[in-house]
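Cross-posted from the bioinformatics board.
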Amino acid sequence: MARKLSMKQRYAALTRDLDWTPSYVDEEKLFPYTRFEGIKVNDWAAWEDPFRLTVDSYYKYQAEKDKRLYAVIDSFAQGQGHLSLSDASYINAMKLFIQGVTPIEYAANRHFSFLARHYNGPGPRFAALCQSVDELRHTQTEAHTLSAYNKYYGGFHSWPKQFDRVWYLSVPKSFIEDAMASGPFEYLIAVSFSFEYLLTNLLFVPFMSGASFNGDVPTMTFGFSAQSDESRHMTLGLEAIKFLLEQDEANVPIIQKWIDKWFWRGYRLVSLIAAMLDYMLPKKVMSWKESFELYFEEQMLEGLFKDLEFYGIRPPADVAVAIAEKEHYSHQAYWTLYQYSYAAGFTTTIPDAEHLDWLSAQYPDTFDKYYRPLWEKAAKIEADGGRFFNTGLPQLCQVCQLPMLFTEVDDPEVVAVRDTVFEGERYHFCSDGCARIFADEPEKYVQAWLPVHQILQGSCGGPTLPEVLAWYGFQDGDSGEYVGSADQIDWQQWHSDEPVRS
Amino acid sequence: MSDTRVRNVGVDLQDANEENLRLVQAIVADNDGAQVTRMPGLVRVQVPSCMTIRRETVETHLGREWETPEFQLAIVSYFGHISTWEDDEIVIKWDH
Amino acid sequence: MPVTALYPEYKYPSRSRQELYGDDILVHVGLRGNRLFAAPSTHRVPPAMTFAAFLTDIVTPWVSSDPELDPQGLRGWTLDGSAITPEDTATLADLGVGHKSLLTFEA
Ligand SMILES: [Fe+2]
Ligand SMILES: [Fe+2]
Ligand SMILES: [Zn+2]
């Protein structure tokens, strides 16, 4: 038998040696999508995959990861683990996760399998193939893990349908579909670089740490298990950008424009994560601000972008806005979710006194000045027997599809509104970032399926609110106020019958 | 690189089992100035400029054979650029 | 700037264009200086509606969920960024309110 090959040799054998040059079909016909974006690739063989993944080692380690995860899920179920969560309100974060994040994983699975066919080089094709399988694994493990809660809690039952219909879920849906409707290189910069390398740490790391802290061991485990694939995906993003920048100088301005666009698209999407981190975890791990400083400002701006400077790449446009917004982001996002939660697949509530104090301590310059008074007003309305809900359908940004909830950077009491008239029709944006994205490709964004406009067009089940909510697939107990909700009542019931734990 | 400040690189590992803790010890042993911090479920090791994870050192700490691809079972995230992933070592550093 | 597309003449209609609302238009309404309402709201209305009817039928029901707000005292109107002084009897069309215009006010 031959001597065992090194990782490097095995990888070369898999990729380069199993590839061939087409003889009776033009390369341009074989790979029809890799030219229209204007990206020039002179040498596909220069693509490096530092992981040097081969089929046997890929399946070996993925199987081991799954085995470990399913052992945790089983023992959690057997040990009635759902009773040892920090609080039933924690589950709201998981509802938002399965409604908003899991369908993105599935979309990524679909698109990476497309890319696994369509890059000219075998290196990126194989990396895309592995990622496609990874993303399917993430979809499945998330569904399996969280289905354990579906037996006990509302809001988990119709997430794939809701992703296509519900107003706040159009934010992640439009993000990933915008990327899928781009060319194969823009998609890499959008998803692999801007989202996975720049931003997913903000999503997974503190959030999964939060799951651990709140007694949700299966979620922590799937999160870390998925995230271990993420380090490969991040590497794909980083390899992709370095490869494209090194291939041809003409690629640099195109890539810069995509970084500007996709940083902003991704950053707006993670406003939902900011809300989860600061408001939806009963036991907090770190604030949005702290996590943004650590995972974005320190690691990306101080680290990565210093490296990319070498190629003539600068930090994303509007990064200064994101930095200024860190003091306000989660508060404005959750305040919005709070007042529209009668139409959401989860419940919301006023933070308790201890939670408000934690927010004051985390945000000493802004929370008491701008946001505590709002919660006090909501509490007063509640004390008078009401519950503050915003009965108007929110005006949405044409690009990110979030409600127009963000304020001017220099005045947190003034809602930021940008508008433009394109071919006789008026369009609104939440920010300079979103306005710029529209101005670059207006023909794309005029097609946006904006949930509020669609409701008013009559395409969402009917003209009345109950008809729309029924069309969304919401059931009794899914929406509204947490206090007095079915989830909270059940939780109290389970814990009152329970023998004292030792 | 325009400023001369030393940039850290690092890895976040699952704080899951004894083996991962030994892995952390191996990294600390091979990298001067390594700093270890913990969050629920996570352990982070960061070092100035460049991190090397050596198979031999890991094997000594684990007391068994260890292949570098096994590192994928422990890693949650990283910052820096994976410049080498060979049979004998993994190197994470900034390139420029 | 046009989209970089796989084929020439990449052109599709807006999914919110006025004709999809029959004779109606969409109007966005925003309350300045009050952060209780997180975002302006969007309404479907006939452009022949008078400003008085717009106030009683659309704006007042929306802002009334703030118990401290006096719906009689709305002032400082702007239309797409410019100040206006609307007469009660004027229609939205008379005031120049178009499809997806933004009206803002203070309370
Ligand atoms: Fe994923
Ligand atoms: Fe991923
Ligand atoms: Zn926007």
